[in-house]
Amino acid sequence: MELKCNPEVAAHLTSGSKRAGVITECWFAGYAYCLACGSNRLEQTRTNTPARDYLCPKCDSPYELKSSVSPLGRRIVDGAYKTMMERITASEAPTLMMLRYDIAWNVRDLVALHSVFLTPAVIEKRPPLAPTARRAGWVGCNLRIDRIPVDGRIALIRDGAECDRAQVRSLFRRSESFAELKPERRGWAALVLAAVRRIGKAEFGLGEVYGFEEEFHAAYPGNSHVRDKIRQQMQVLRDLGYVEFVGRGEYKVVGR
After folding, report:
1. What pLDDT, in 10s, does the model give residues 13-42?
2. For the segment 62-84, what is each residue's pLDDT rounded down to a tens digit?
3. Domains delineated in the chain
4. CB atoms < 10 A from the CB of 202, how many?
5. In whole angstroms, what is the distance from residue 210 CA to residue 205 CA?
6. Structure pTM?
């Protein structure tokens, strides 16, 4: 895989942001592949297609590309709040491809945010644009990357080196079991899984998961029974094969 973008494709543009968009989109169109199946290419959608920039010609899996010269942070700016929530509710959210490049147009990182982990809990509504703005009243959203477990952040390129495609696809498929859950329930399960991963131990206690209670409150401020939800989601993670219950509030991580 060639990890150098071609800036000449945007030589006619003067806007820095438009140049970056065209340059990285051109690279992605030439080298991206589907994570859900064996297709080694993606097809670009029509301009302004809501919440999806590319489709797999083999399995129709949708992808949306976001590029930046800055590292991936705790949150990223996304598009229209209403559109993204509609996609999530209908289980049609795209897998987000986060591309980071350097000032010499080398691709440094490419990370897939698995679509099953794009839930209402990670969508942060932004205030409407001011009446004086060109799109007055328009409401956008941020994506809370820190609420997505590491399972849903899959590296295709890391520090300027391509990752093994078979392993990338295997990691992507590992999370497909989350698709069996409805978006709201999936959001809770993903938050609890993210907490389990952050504990970082092969065996842990329920009390350690309770240590993230305030973060769960922040994601679901209307829920006053967070500990009950945590216990419930530990059962969900057990059924999905992520943890094993060993007794007396103790759990063991499975398969990772």
Report:
1. 999 999 999 999 999 999 999 999 999 999
2. 999 999 999 888 999 988 999 88
3. 1-174 (3.40.210.30), 181-256 (1.10.10.10)
4. 10
5. 9
6. 0.89
